[in-house]
Amino acid sequence: MATVILVRHGRTTANATGMLAGRTAGVLLDDIGREQARLTGTRLAVVPVVGVVSSPLERCRETAEWILNEQTGTPVTPVEDDLTECDYGDWQGRSLSDLSTEKLWSVVQTQPSAVTFPNGEAMATMQSRSVAAIRRLDAAFEAEHGPGAVWVAVSHGDIIKSILADALGMHLDLFQRINVGPASVSIVRYGANRPSVMATNTDAGDLSWLAASTPAGDAPVGGGAGHQTPPASRA
Known about the structure:
Blueprint: E1 3-8, H1 13-17, H2 31-44, E2 51-54, H3 58-69, H4 96-99, H5 103-110, H6 123-145, E3 150-155, H7 157-167, E4 185-190, E5 195-202, H8 209-212
Parallel strand pairs: 1-3, 2-3
Antiparallel strand pairs: 1-4, 4-5
Helix pairs in contact: 2-3, 6-7
């Protein structure tokens, strides 16, 4: 099974001001976001990835560049439209504090599967197209590079939360229980029997084990011994 590293883009000017950017063009990383992306790129430098796939929006492509800058190989760099941000429709560009007064807000919090944003996308559609894209890309990378392949997908908070919910076998209505911070790293392996969620919402920690481990097909009864960090990288 291949391994996908899900990376949310770094903090943006919209995040900093509490605006729901959605698919607005020209929303870029701020100074903090660039530093977050740089640190994530450094963290991933020990993992030779075969691809860095990005949402088409600028903030994700910026984040992907910071990751690519630290890679010594030549991973492919496709842009994937189905990993783009949710279409929030009329909510796009409005402040979160203003949106929290809308009746739909409470439904977004408690029953997102029932939400279709006004003149926008259904959250169920958002999940189905992003999950389908991740599974399709994962299968393609594994077919080309083998079961030890590791690749990166740079996307958005709600997109990654919905992908993780699917991998965890959670109903979309529970996905607000998952947190995905700016430039955070989550890790999923898709096996023949089920996905395996290796990490969620991490912003620190050694990842060199990803370059050295051979994915097992079955879940170890009792939890197993965990991944083994190569001796050279131990403190």
